[in-house]
């Protein structure tokens, strides 16, 4: 779309890309649709072939203990998070959330009966979380440590060594669960694969993972995700889903089987398609005065620090909202970092067509022409 006909507001705020669904997946769904007779209804925990394909893919990623019965297929990743949180949270329990983190976690935790306690991390050290910092933040009320890896919104990938450091702490707390949201795990621009939490020793059976198909596997709008948990927890989740809903339709599940089997190729092609817009946005952000170059090894977001552009007379959360409103008035929608626990930062998606990104970045530059404070 040429800049002249660009919409009044271009969104860099959506969490979903504009990728076409993978052909292998749509073909698998089409085959099911074209078969004669009514659609079969799957068991609530998911089609055996999907649970088996997922278990196999985790085994290949080093999670040798994952078996099909640990996997429960859900109507999206949010549903998987909710099922797990509801299964493990008791009245008064807290979920420790290193921040910045995905804005959706706050309400999920509250609706599942818990309370979020944020553990603020700093952009200055690229959001490092030292084991001793984690230990100091744990209280008798902490039931779950929840993190996203890669992190939404920062794009930070936590390495094997970092996660091993955290687990050396969490293993001292027998009632504590560790939950990793790995939905962006396929979209990484570094040669190292993103380590899955399930590939670490879990002698107390306390590690849980959620993932889905709407990010790294381009099945946007197909409403399918899953959880992987120790057997008793997976069974509680499946029983809860059975009582309150129904199985994910088999069309989506067969599409997911195909996407799982072709996951590396699908993610590789997404990464390739994202390179030009990633490079374009990175170049543009480097030109903004008083904005440190954001580091992001993964996802399709940058999370620049725009604190120099906050109105100094406002308190941080109000100032952050005012900044986002100012950018909206110049024609670009962004996610307010305050909703992720980091006022003054914004989340920008580059999973948009270049023809939209160009005018969006122009508007961003116009909206950020004058910093309020010296660096
Ligand atoms: C970290 C994270 N987890 C979960 C979700 C929800 O994913 P789904 O669309 O599969 O429900 C999102 C969506 O933005 C996300 O960013």
From TrEMBL:
Cofactor: pyridoxal 5'-phosphate
Keywords: Aminotransferase, Pyridoxal phosphate, Transferase
Taxonomic lineage of the native organism: Bacteria, Pseudomonadati, Bacteroidota, Cytophagia, Cytophagales
Recorded family membership: Belongs to the class-I pyridoxal-phosphate-dependent aminotransferase family.
Domain Aminotransferase class I/classII large positions: 9-364
Keyword Mitochondrion part of the UniProt annotation: no
PANTHER family, per database record: ASPARTATE AMINOTRANSFERASE (PTHR46383:SF1)
Pfam families associated with the record: Aminotran_1_2 (PF00155)
Protein name stated in the entry: Aminotransferase
GO MF terms held by the record: transaminase activity
Family annotation (InterPro entries): Aminotransferase_I/II_large (IPR004839), AspAT/PAT-like (IPR050596), PyrdxlP-dep_Trfase (IPR015424), PyrdxlP-dep_Trfase_major (IPR015421), PyrdxlP-dep_Trfase_small (IPR015422)
